[in-house]
Design brief:
The chain is an alpha/beta fold. The protein has a single domain (4-310), classed as TIM Barrel (Alpha-Beta Barrel). Helix content is 51%, strand content 14%. The chain has helices at residues 4-8, 24-33, 40-45, 52-63, 69-85, 97-102, 107-125, 141-153, 177-185, 200-208, 224-233, 241-246, 258-263, 275-278, 282-293, 297-309, 315-327, and strands spanning 11-17, 88-95, 128-136, 159-165, 189-194, 213-216, 237-239, 268-270. Strands 1-2-3-4-5-6-7-8 form an eight-stranded parallel sheet. 50% of the residues are buried. The mean pLDDT is 95.
Length: 332
């Protein structure tokens, strides 16, 4: 059980996939909506896999049951309810728009469902949420362009940025140079999954695309020059401890470079990635950092501060959250 200090710490979460937040009991509910009976054991079996590619297949299977705008409204609302319980005040959530486009779903209708869920969640739980539209990198640059065009279309409706996720080896960052130039020109903020299942060259590639935040960055530890670059430029790295273990990108927790990164002065944030699929929560990630790597209360407070600093919020909103964090007189 995370400590009272961790539970009371105001936080933001910046690397979080909406579809990966769907708990088994919600999956059963979605299936029943669509006339499919499902036991808890059947739903939970989707969340079992052995490696990164197995995880990608599980993620795809889970999205089969997301069919209507109302489905997306429900899972958004449930996510915001979970975040409030973790004292997460702001979140920037990836939506797999690339999957919706690939499935030829009516994304305009789905987006209305997403926004209804967000608006209800903000009102009921006082959680701030911005969307990041995620393209599936192994599908190639043209489908990514379509995703980024949709992000541009809804930029004035809480869509803050774009990213690429999926198989880094099959979809290296260099393929998406033109698409990232387009997204930047449209005023969108740029993220990229990098160095999760591929080497440090994938992170260099993401930086060359103009990525303002790096998702995972696990393999940066293999390249001292890259560590120096990330530290010097203070590029936020979105650390996902449990995720890296569950996908077998990191074989054991003691091998994870998070403490080495912190000691080298990298700007780190802690995140859950796909909390339901990995059986975690943001408070548990903070507890893991404390127990396994000796992060002190002051270190954890710094990570919480980083989560607001590294967000894509406008300066005045960042300041409001940072003031809330500073005024939370909680003892470690």
């Amino acid at each position: 059980m995370p400590s009272a200090f961790i539970r009371a710490l105001p936080k933001a979460e910046l690397h979080l996939h909406l579809e990966g937040s769907v708990a088994p009991h919600t999956l059963i509910e979605l299936r029943q909506r669509h006339g499919k009976e499902s036991t808890l054991a059947e739903a939970e079996s989707i969340y079992q896999y052995e490696d990164f590619l197995g995880f990608l297949m599980a993620f795809k299977t889970l999205t089969d049951d997301l069919q209507t705008p109302e489905d997306y409204e429900l899972i958004t609302y449930r996510l915001m309810q979970q975040l409030r319980a973790e004292n997460v005040l702001h979140t920037e959530v990836y939506v797999s728009v690339g999957v919706c486009v690939w499935r030829k779903q009516d994304f305009e209708a789905i987006f209305e469902g997403l926004e209804r869920g967000r608006a209800r969640g903000e009102k009921d739980f006082n959680v701030s949420l911005l969307w990041i539209f995620d393209a599936v990198r192994q599908f190639g640059p043209e489908p990514a362009q379509r995703v980024f065009e949709l992000a541009a279309k809804y930029r004035d409706r809480n869509v803050i940025g774009i990213g690429i996720g999926g198989d880094e080896v099959k979809g290296p960052p260099e393929l998406f140079r033109e698409q990232y130039v387009y997204a930047k020109d449209q005023g969108l903020r740029l993220t990229a999954h990098a160095g999760e299942s591929a080497g440090p060259e994938s992170i260099w590639g993401a930086l060359n695309l103009g990525a303002e935040r790096i998702g995972h960055g696990l393999t940066a530890s293999q390249d001292p020059e890259l560590i120096e670059e990330l530290s010097k430029r203070q590029i936020p790295v979105e650390i996902c401890l449990t995720s890296n273990l569950r996908t077998a990108c990191c074989t054991k927790i003691s091998d994870h470079p998070v403490k080495s990164y912190f000691d080298h002065g990298l700007m780190l944030t802690l995140n859950t990635d796909d909390p339901a699929m990995f059986g975690t929560s943001l408070n548990l990630e903070f507890e893991l950092a404390q127990k396994e790597f000796g992060f002190t209360g002051e270190h954890l407070r710094e990570l919480a501060r980083n989560s607001f600093e590294a967000s894509f919020l406008p300066p005045e909103k960042k300041l409001r959250f940072l003031n809330l964090l500073d005024s939370a007189a909680i003892q470690a």
